[in-house]
Design brief:
Elements: H1 7-26, E1 38-43, E2 46-51, E3 57-63, E4 66-71, H2 75-100, E5 123-124, E6 127-128, H3 137-165
Length: 170
């Protein structure tokens, strides 16, 4: 038995069916695999999605709007990029080093020289002559004066100790 509805009731019923079917699309249990292109594996609160055509991996999580998939950074691609950068730097530095190198080839080795090396004393007939600077007469007089004062003080001190032992009698 057909149900007779007014056009406004019919449009409301169609809208309700569309809303209900749209809710079913949101209520999917997993992201779409697009006819076998993606392989899904459960991981934590979501899935890991492998693109079987390109080999890229994504993490898929469910949020309020539905499933969202984000690519996982590819460590191999990052390493390949870094290796390429380092090779380019290496080539550049080799070129700079080659530009600094002397243009002509040197046949003989350069002599080694040590500027810090002291000159050896000259030996005459197998004997070494070492010169020691002697003190001047003035320096000798100063040393003698110091020794005389030190000797007098030592004698005075010995006399005081002797008098203290004898009770003040010398």
């Amino acid at each position: 038995m057909p149900i007779a509805m007014s056009p406004s009731k019919l449009s409301i019923a169609i809208a309700a069916i569309l809303i209900a079917s749209g809710g079913a699309a949101i209520a999917q249990t997993a992201p779409d695999t697009e006819n076998g292109r993606y392989a899904l594996s459960p991981a934590g609160d979501g899935f890991l999605r492998l693109d079987t055509r390109t080999g890229t991996v994504s993490t898929c999580t469910k949020n309020s709007a539905g499933w969202a998939c984000y690519m996982v950074p590819d460590e191999r691609a990052a390493l390949d990029t870094e290796i390429g950068r380092l090779q380019a730097d290496n080539d550049k530095l080799k070129g700079e080093l080659a530009a600094r190198a002397p243009s002509g080839k040197i046949d003989e080795a350069l002599p080694k020289s040590d500027q810090l090396k002291k000159a050896e004393p000259k030996a005459a007939e197998g004997e070494r002559k070492i010169e020691i600077p002697l003190p001047s007469d003035q320096d000798v007089d100063r040393v003698m004066s110091f020794l005389e004062k030190a000797w007098r003080r030592l004698i005075d001190m010995a006399n005081r100790v002797q008098s203290d032992v004898n009770g003040g009698k010398i």
